[in-house]
Amino acid sequence: MSSIDYLRLLQLAAPETFLTLTGLMVLAVDLIVGRGSAPGTRIILSGSVAATGCLLAAGGLFLLPVYGTFAAGMLVADPLTVLIKVSLVILTLFTVLLAFSDAAPLADPGEYFALLLFACVGMMFLTSAEDLLMVFLALEFTSLSLYILAAFNKQSPHSTEAGIKYFLFGSISAAFMLFGLSLVYGVTGSVQLPEVAAGLARAGNDPLALVALVMIAMGFGFKVAAVPFHLWAPDVYQGAPIPSAALIASGSKVASFFVFAKVVVIGFGGAPAAVGSGAAPVWVILLGIMAAVSMILGNLAALVQVSVRRLLAFSAIAHAGYMLLGILAGTEGFGPLVYYVITYGLATVGAFGVVSIVQARTGSDRLCDFAGFHRRFPVLAFCMLIFMLSLAGIPPLAGFFGKFYVFAAAVKAGSLALFILALATSTVSLFYYLQVLKQIYVGETADASHWEPVPITVSVALLAMAFGVTLLGCFPDLLLNRITIALRITGF
Amino acid sequence: MELHGINFLLVLGLPLIGSPLVALAGRRLGRRSGWLALAFPLISTAALLALAGGIGLPTRVVIEWPWVPSLGLGLSFLIDGLSIFFGLVVSVMGSLIVFYAIFYLDKDEEHQGRFYSYLVLFMGAMLGTVFSNHLVLIFIFWELTGIASFLLIGFWHGEADSRVGARQALLVTGSTGLAMFVGLVILHQIFGSASVSELLSGDLSSGKHSVLFTVAMLLVLVGAFGKSAQFPLHFWLPNAMAAPTPVSAYLHSATMVKLGVFLVARLYPVFVDHSWWAPLLGLIAFTTMALGAVLALLSHDLKAILAFSTVSQLGYLIGYYGLGPPDGVEHDYLHILNHVFYKGCLFMVVGIVAHAAGIRDIRQLGGLFPRLPLLGVTTLVAAATMAGIPGTTGFLSKEMMLKEIFEAMRARDELGLYATACVVLTSVVKVAFSVRLFANIFLGKKPEQVKQDFHAPSPWMQLPPVLLAACALLFGLFPGLLDAPFGALAVEGLNRPQHLALWHGFTKELLVSSLVLALGFGLYWLGEKTNWRWHHIPRWLRFDVAFEAGIEVFSKFTKVVTRVLRSDQPLDYLPIIVTFFVLLVGGRLLWQGSGLWGSLALDWGTVQPLRTLAAGLIALAVVGVLFLRRWTAQLISLSVAGFLTCFYFVLYRAPDLALTQILVETVTLIMVLLLLARFPRSAQVGEERRKPVRFRRVFHMLLALSVGGVATVLTLMVTANPHPSPIGRGFLEHTVELAKGSNAVNTILVDFRGFDTLGEITVLVIATLGCLGLLMRYKRTPEEYQQGPHGPPGSGAGEEVRE
């Protein structure tokens, strides 16, 4: 074994290191400067440090990317992962900005922001891992941060419940995944994805490999909230503090799907299919079932929700189904999947931001609480319009191209039945997104009480996201080109 | 090309950009925003005419701007005769309608800006659909017309009718549009090109015999049938009549419902050879034609009569393409234009009548001619056109229709016969309700209520229908005028324009035509004689009622599904996940079946008594966990299993492993016991109270057993095939040499996999930090402990909404 070049490691992991340090700094600032100040001051103080950190990290990643591979795939920095990392940091930045809102009175803002950053670091490591051990570690790193974030509102039993449920089922699925990963190692003798692929090809039709795949799929299925591993999602989306829920719904999904696709496509996809063994059809069938059930159940259940956050949760489940189509399409679907999850994340964080505004002012997130929102905050109502329509996949918003791109890849890969199902369920989904908009725009309310103005950071974040969603919808090439080029360089 | 591009931007881009402008300006302008909106269709018409002149018809020009090159998606537009013809219909009718709406909408009508904005948006979407050269663009604009029409139909959203009508229209056209999209995508897959012009001009014979091609055709036709209100999806169109009349006149007679016809025409050269094309289109479309006409006769609402007659005419138009010969049809433009003339005119007339008299029921109207002479004459001409009286375009259209249908009857046996029967029946019925429409509104004596409520409409409002009727009359008298434009607009593979003349001599068609007229008048006379008593739509023909009921059922179904699958309790979660696991993994293992058991054959000779004893004791301890009641007892029993595992390790001569296990076991036992001691008694009581029912318990037991079984089989499988070169051996061999330590476990942790350990420690630190954050700051007060948990264990926040 060769010695480790720590300088190289630091170079490649510079953004992660920087964000970790920022997280520690947030803790320190909150502890030293913020002690004894009012909660509002502490939020602004530690929040701005965290936001600045995110901004700098995103800028650094974007402008001065460093590419390379460390320790045979433990840490890979190529254009594609850098792209994902940039979007992760940006999503975290928006989440941080949302946390400025007074939705959930944060008892310990320093720790909260630090945990947000740590979760982001975990996701970044997850993105760059091509080594199954690192994948698992990073996944746990992310998950642990998210469990705590979900349970962070200590006074609220719902938040605690969300945290506990998330944690319990997260651990179970992690156990499954670890079992699966160790089986993979047992079958192939390696934990590095390319070698795993080669090993699986050698192993041929080994039932253990299939068992391993099922277990890994269960682990990831939980992370991305695909049916039947979705059960935690509604409770967590509803109970967790809103910024936490937003990050769970966006960043965590981006990273998990990216890695899921990477593991399936690189690790399991190419090799067995190439030698024509039975393995390839099995994962296609497995993911196909998961996708179909997710699309149907997510959309149907979302129809009857009263709580907007639960509605978003079920819509997230449905979207997980659409995204699984991208994985099913194999290498063809990689680019579409990346585009889809990023734009989906943007719109979701935005939607949660608007929900947080309403919840802070009415105390709940029922549909009827949105009535009259248009008259109180016309600009933000328009932002919500954009987010909802983008999630529903209406042109010319980013969500449409995400769907179009993923569905086209699915058709190319031959899953016509799933494509039709996806289209049909998308239509259904339009209904519940419009329900929200209907309340916002035409809903009648007797409540004429004055609402506090929205914090400026939240408005800026929402406007920025709405602008991003529209821009990526009108000019999808801004992102698509980067993805395509990155994919070509990475060799997909 | 440059010039064409700019021209085309004026045609299409301006309305799309202009729509929000009108809405914005509407707040300022109020009632006058109509005049602003009028500018857009006028400019589009002018630009379209300039474009048509510029490209030198008949030819085909493609204008393209890049949009998303990485997806091969460009803003590509096809300018040819067909698209220009439909474009002109859309923009000219748009001008007339906007002009008409300016006088139609009440002065105190709110949101006028929004209304005109939707109207302009709709026009832009229509133009986009007919000019699109990319299959995806067609779909985008197609759905945009659906959305715009939804907004327009539901414009008076205070009324329940409007909302229901708008919803039906959106659901039917929207979902069939999706089906069409699937079809278009399949077409793209088959031919490898998403460009309409390439589809039309390319050699496509290779893909035409596949099953997929048939599927694609069917799906595209579903889209066309939905949009053009074909049987059995025709019901949305009459219900969409809840819209303001200008909308009905524009969308539901002249333009949007013709999109299906347009799509059929656009893809005619692609599909016409298909053996299912003629039977499918013929059966459905001619059924629609006859059914629509009969329903029109049975209706008494003015707009419903027109709506059903539109359904009927749309059926004819689609059926016309269905029976067309492979090298193209002759008079499609004539039939479409004729329909635009009289139906647009009649809709506007009906709007004016309803406006003036305040009534839309034909049974309560009459005797309006003296009050509205100009309108009366206009209606007479339009009704004559609808009935096909000589001197109008309607007559030409009917002559040609009969001529072609007789040819078709010869060419296509039963199908032709069916079509002919439908056409003749429809023509007779059509004459009857045309006569009724004119006579019962304008002739006869005036009912009391009409006398009271009547107020004269603005003369300007009557201008658009008069213009349309005049066209019908002018071209009807001098059909030669149409030869040149139709010739120029002809599209290769679709049209074979023929000379049009008023007089064809004494032909079979003229004879039938006269018979039809006579029969039609007779039918009307019969209706008057019987006072239209038989006159209502029977329940089994009310497809809209069935549709609404279906939607109701669907909504109930989703509620049931959600309630059944909702699980807010961990007790429900786990079985789902575990069942999935057992089914997939266990099922897979069973599938492999035969080969598996052989490889798992146990070597009984290796079984040692001491180890067996340890294993048996572990199993016993686990059983204890199941049967003990108290939490502490269960926990201790569980840790007995843990300690026995240490013993098991010792038997394998792994003392360090056993030591680690003992330490971990002890620490966790103490920790959990301490925690349990802090739990309120009520938590445990709560759990005991919630024992699951017997069925569940059996199910859970089976699940647990099968998980155990699967795990056993897996373990056996793994141990049965040891890896040829386990990594542990390498570590053992090199531990001194590379890591300078003789304890391999330690060197693996701190040297060989040091990076992992570092990560693991970081993870633990983060977790600890977070737990500290959660636990330290917020301590429950003794009072809160007294209150016990916030609910029984695992109680879901679930459905109940938080206040």
In short:
The complex is a heterodimer of chains A (492) and B (803). Chain A is mainly α and 492 residues long. In chain A, 77% of the residues lie in helices and 1% in strands.
Q: What features would you describe in this structure?
A:
The complex is a heterodimer of chains A (492) and B (803). Chain A is mostly helical. Chain A has one domain. Chain A has 21 helices and two strands. In chain A, strand 1 and strand 2 (75-77) form a beta hairpin. Chain A is globular, with a radius of gyration of 21 Å. Mean pLDDT of chain A is 86; it is low at 271-279. By secondary structure, chain B is mostly helical. Among the domains of chain B are: 332-535, no CATH class; 540-566; 749-796. Helices cover 73% and strands 2% of the residues of chain B. Chain B has helices at 2-29, 33-55, 81-104, 112-131, 135-153, 160-191, 196-201, 211-227, 236-239, 245-254, 259-266, 268-271, 277-298, 302-323, 332-357, 373-387, 393-411, 413-442, 448-453, 463-477, 480-489, 508-529, 543-565, 570-592, 594-599, 609-627, 631-651, 655-678, 681-689, 694-720, 727-739, 744-752, 754-775, 782-787; strands spanning 61-68, 73-79. In chain B, strands 1-2 form a two-stranded antiparallel sheet. Chain B starts with a helix and ends in a 16-residue tail after the last helix. Residues 791-803 of chain B have low confidence and may be disordered. At the A-B interface, helix 5, helix 6, helix 7, helix 9 and helix 10 of A face helix 5, helix 6, helix 23, helix 24 and helix 30 of B.
The largest contact between protein chains, plus residue counts on each side, is: A-B, 87 and 73 residues
Roughly how much helix do the residues of chain A carry, as a percent range?
over 70%
Structural class of chain A: mainly alpha
Shape label of chain A: globular
Measure the end-to-end span of chain A: 29 Å
Average pLDDT rating of chain A: 86
Strand element count of chain B: 2
Oligomer: heterodimer
Q: What proportion of the residues of chain A form beta strands (DSSP E)?
A: under 5%
Q: Tell me, briefly, the overall form of chain B.
A: elongated
Strand order of the largest sheet of chain A: 1-2
The whole-angstrom Rg of chain A is: 21 Å
**Largest sheet data of chain A:** 2 strands, antiparallel
The helical percent of chain B reads over 70%
DSSP E strands of chain A, number:
2
